[in-house]
Amino acid sequence: MKRDVEAGRKSELELLSGTLCRLAEECGVQVKESRQVYEELKKHSIV
Questions:
Q1: What average pLDDT does this structure show over 17-38?
Q2: 16 lies in which domain range?
Q3: Which residue of 4, 25, 35, 45 is surrounded by the most CB atoms within 10 Å?
Q4: Which DSSP symbol is given to 11?
């Protein structure tokens, strides 16, 4: 992921973490730590 961001490419962050957070929300499952990590990484990533 770091190499992708440094090269200006999209990372797999949205595909992996974003999907997890969306599916968990749809199912009513809390993934607090995963969401926190995802939101923090999004700040530094090209999604």
A1: 96
A2: 2-42
A3: 45
A4: P
